[in-house]
Structure formats: structure tokens, C-alpha cells
């Protein structure tokens, strides 16, 4: 499964976006906000389209403009933390699959992330296999027709 990803994290390069691969028609789009360099490389190698942003505000703008399928968001982003990112996505009614990436692993940290609107809470360092599984499951869950 191919997906588009957005990476948002503070770096010396400042805010911005770049595509690591060419857009494939119909490919799922994922927004990722975290360690841009390493995660971008890993996810690109897994054939996802990756977009990056340097902070939460830029990441939020890109997620909506690109109509991302999912967002992998660092909780400790500058200008808008991951919790606020999730709250704003949910306030807009977006069905974006949200995964929190964080160094905070206490049960109350997970609860806070879920309450903000994240579906998943991953504690760093993350397993590449676990991240790939969660991305695929989240995208598939979003694409399934609703059942009544």
C-alpha cells in the first residue's frame, strides 16, 4: 500500500514542504509530523509519498491542502503542539488518521493524546514494522465504507 505522508518537525531548515517521491494517482496520503530525515527515508523506501513541514502550523496547513490520508505527529512540535494539531483536525471534521509520536509513554500521556483526537500513540523509539502496520491499518480503516 502506497501512502502520502507529511512530516512536521522543527529543524534548522525552517518551515516548508517537499515531496520525496512522485505522486501516484489514487495513492493514500499520510501526513507525518516528526523526525523528518529518518522517517521520511524509511517511509519513502516503503513506497509512501512523504511531505514535510517544520512545525505544527505548517503541518496542519499541508495536511488540509494535500488532503492527507493520515498524519504522524510529534507531540512536541513548535508553534502548535501535537495535541492542538489533533484538536484542530477534529474540529474541522476531518477523517485524517492521526498517530502521535512522542517520548512520553505514561498511561496519562496516552490518554491525553487519545482525548485530543489521536487514534494511536507511539512512544519513541518506534518500531518501523509497527509504524508500517499502523499506517496501513489506519488507511484501510478510513477507506472502508461505513456500516449501519
From TrEMBL:
Coiled coil ranges: none
Annotated Response regulatory domain residues: 25-139
Listed Pfam families: Response_reg
Keywords, ordered alphabetically: DNA-binding, Phosphoprotein, Transcription, Transcription regulation, Two-component regulatory system
Region (Disordered): 1-27
The keyword Transit peptide belongs to this UniProt entry's keyword annotation: no
Modified residues (4-aspartylphosphate): 74
InterPro entries, alphabetized: CheY-like_superfamily, Sig_transdc_resp-reg_receiver, WalR-like
Keyword Transcription regulation: yes
Protein name, entry field: Response regulator
Native organism: Pseudaquabacterium terrae
Amino acid at each position: 500500500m502506497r501512502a502520502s505522508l507529511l512530516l512536521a518537525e522543527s529543524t534548522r531548515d525552517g518551515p516548508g514542504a517537499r515531496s520525496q517521491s512522485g505522486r501516484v494517482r489514487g495513492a493514500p496520503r499520510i501526513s507525518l509530523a516528526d523526525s523528518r530525515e529518518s522517517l521520511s527515508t524509511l517511509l519513502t523506501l516503503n513506497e509512501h509519498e512523504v511531505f514535510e513541514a517544520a512545525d505544527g502550523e505548517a503541518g496542519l496547513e499541508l495536511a488540509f491542502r494535500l488532503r492527507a490520508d493520515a498524519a504522524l505527529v510529534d507531540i512536541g512540535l513548535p508553534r502548535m503542539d501535537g495535541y492542538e494539531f489533533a484538536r484542530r483536525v477534529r474540529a474541522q471534521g476531518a477523517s485524517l488518521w492521526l498517530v502521535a509520536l512522542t517520548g512520553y509513554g505514561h498511561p496519562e500521556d496516552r490518554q491525553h493524546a487519545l482525548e485530543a483526537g489521536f487514534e494511536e500513540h507511539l512512544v519513541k523509539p518506534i518500531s518501523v514494522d509497527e509504524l508500517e502496520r499502523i499506517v496501513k491499518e489506519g488507511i484501510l480503516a478510513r477507506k472502508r465504507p461505513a456500516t449501519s
